[in-house]
Amino acid sequence: MTTLSNDKPTAISIRNVSQRYGEAGSSGAVVALQDISLDIRQGEFLCLLGPSGCGKSTLLNIVGGLFSATEGQVKVGDKIVKGPLPADISFVFQESTLYPWYTIRENFDVAFKFQRVPRNEWKERTASALQAVGMSSFIDHFPNQLSVGMRQRVNLARGIALKTDIILMDEPFAALDEQTRMVLGEDLSELLAATKKTIVFVTHSLAEAVFLSDRIVVMTARPGRIKTIVEVNEPHPRSPDFMLQPRFSELRNELYALLRDEIRQAIATTGGSVRPSGD
Amino acid sequence: MLETSNASARIVQIAFLAIAAGAWYAVTTTGNISPLLLPPMDRVWSALNTLLARGQFWPPILITLTTIAQAYAIAIVTGVLVAYLVTRSRFLTEVFEPVIAGVFSIPITLFFPVFILFFGIGPASKVAYGATYGFFPIALNTIAGLSAVDERFLRSARSMGASSFDTFRHVLFPAAFPVILTGLRVGFFISFASVLGGETLSSAVGVGRNIALAAELMEPARLYAWIVFVILTAIVLNTIVSQIENRRRDY
Amino acid sequence: MSALAAKAGSETPPRMTYASRVVWTRRGVIAAIAVFFEIYGRTFADPNLFSPPSTIVAALFQKVFAEERIRDAIWITFMEVSVAYVMSVVFGLAAGLLVGWTRPGRHAVYPIILLLYSIPQVILLPLFVLIFGIGPAVKIAFGFTHGIFPIMVNVIAGMRNVSPLLLSGSRSLGASSIDVARHVYFPHMVPSLFAGLRLAMTLTLLGVILGELYVSTTGIGYYTKLFAERLDPAPLFALISVLAFMAILLNEVVRVAERKFTRWKR
Hints:
The complex is a heterotrimer. Chain A is of the alpha/beta class. Chain A has 7 helices and 10 strands.
């Protein structure tokens, strides 16, 4: 049934992770995640999909060691995650985390410095990553001189240049317009086929999830639990033609059916208000 | 979270005041400092009481407050008017804003002897001096506020058929108000400080004159009594203004 | 709009661009003001109170620069301002970083600094004279206490509101807290620091001039007071323009540095 063999080694193993905010039992207590267990295989593109506030970003931040879970543990390879693992995991956030006060080149250099990459590799890595996203000619620009889409491309390139085996992406294309999103999605699919990285990707776009993922983890409304896991059998790189196939629409409709009730429930409990605290 | 941090901040602030008072007490009682520079607390306290009891306090305060009020009123009227005229077009704004900002970067205090020359040694020269100083932050902030109003608001007002007065009253002014308020606050404190400064430098009457006089007559207790009074006034005014500002910001 | 105007200008060759039109109009306005004062000074003005600009320029060379005592006074004021300013920058930056770096600092100490900043310092001038005498020390001290506050306040204010996204981004890259201080907090604070540096320059000058006007035996402030009392407006205004020039020059130095270090903002 799946093109990815199940015997591939596990890259990330999530065991019984729960996350609560506020004092347990108090009126302000919120259970963001409840008992999540999941194995993510090496070289897999895994999507976390769910209604706003279901804790997908929280889960991603726990995997990346930026938050610590209230219960449960995450292992990356043999290591138990207790804090950021810059040598194994890089992050791409919704908005660019390029420092506005440094040029693109300096941004890459500083990231390499933080990650303790030998200095003689910096130039080559920057050049090839920028090349891959078609941004080579902007190397000496400041981030504010680029459009939002260009910035996010560079941000993506930086994630790739760090050469970690795992990239965690938190709605990296959310701030972009539909067209840019699709082009970047294609780029990403190509890069994936070429580099065999493990990618965990948070999104609330159904099309994006189907187009990019090997597996889609559908989450419930708060408290976030795994509702089901949907497999997408399609080799990378994927071309836009994939979106025209009946299977693409079928998968999307299936996901929508799964999510509809959750979204209604999420709207009912939060009054549909946008929660600035993030998902 | 906000309340707890405010409470702990308050504790540190009270501790700061206590330490400052304690240091004052310790230094003056051990006699490590000449009473001419820092008189003991109780002597300042009794000097303050004497000033209050003899009614010597009120005439200079009344003069100074009147001077400040006049200076500030002139600064507001001229500042807002000039800013309104200058922001009538983007071209005018770009021509005049740097000129006004440039003049403000020169210490206007330099012209103080000129103010004395023109308006004499009485309160009139302090009114002019305080008004000139207060004019600049008010004008500059009002210009900044009025010219930064989002073009879309103006366009939507025009599309709904608003007259230019309506636009000013309902769009331009409310939109620019927070920035204008900053200018009014800065302008007030600059007028306040420069009137006191003018009185200290060269005057026959007012709070500033009394401070200078106490120093000249080598009466440190009285000097400190006046200084404590002005500092307390400044703190009270500052608290009132920031309360007003916080309330305004709620909308 | 400026781009549009510039384009319209290029279609009809002899017309200038919008930007240069602004600059030339501004120069025209300044020239018109000078001409107005020239006429006013020559016709209606009381010669004991006001001089036309041409007389002021003449006085600048004949009465101000020609006299060694006044040349020395200008130099002394310049030195006092420089020393006070450097001290304000060094101590203001250090204190600001120290306070701004820690949470209790930002929440508890910052309001105290703001409160002290709101006190009109000029009322302390007689006290300063009692403590420091009437030499250069009092002027430097008074300039320093004027200059240090805007720097502290702007440094602390500049370290607030750092985007949490940049902070978690840095952490995920493996940045240590020193890395974060150096590459995130410090650069984030720089534009605000420069606003403080410019304000501090103006205020340091103010502090020194106040000291000279109040009680002093030399310096630009002392001589402006002297000329005013002698009802000799030409050298008075000449001396004022020297100091105004000094203020603009020093301000411009800071502005050039600012432009260089905040290039990323534009």
